[in-house]
Amino acid sequence: METAEGQGEVLLTLEGDLDYETAALLHSALEATAYGPGRRLALDLSGLVFFDSGGINALLAVRRSALDAGAELTILRMSSMVERIFGMTGLDEIFAPHDGGPSVPGNPEGKG
User: Fold this and answer.
1) Coil, helix or strand for 6?
2) Which CATH number do you get for residue 70?
3) Which residue in 19, 68, 77, 108 is a FRET match for 13, CA 20 to 30 A apart?
4) C-alpha to C-alpha distance for 38 and 24, rounded to whole angstroms
5) Is residue 101 part of a domain?
6) Entry pTM
7) Residue 33 zone, left/alpha/beta (φ > 0; ψ -120 to 50; rest)
8) Which residue range(s) make up the domain with 72?
9) Chain segment 53-68, per-residue pLDDT in tens
């Protein structure tokens, strides 16, 4: 998991598995960032190769934490496997995935 912080934004790039065992890493990375009111938290899920109910719960908890802190949460990119799971579980209606963003750290041109 990589973290990049820019002015008003935090990008978390997840790779490998997001499940019950690795969810704590996501929570730790989130707690180590300075997200809050007026800030954008972006998740890049394109590197995930395994994603189960523990991962779903972790993402929902991250969303809840971000909303409670007044931060905006965005899903930038997803692997095809994650995209299928989002569609099957309705996460695609809870999260508003989109490709890139013009000012996300590590993605200055908004390319997905």
Assistant:
1) strand
2) 3.30.750.24
3) 68
4) 25
5) no
6) 0.79
7) beta
8) 2-94
9) 999 999 999 899 888 9
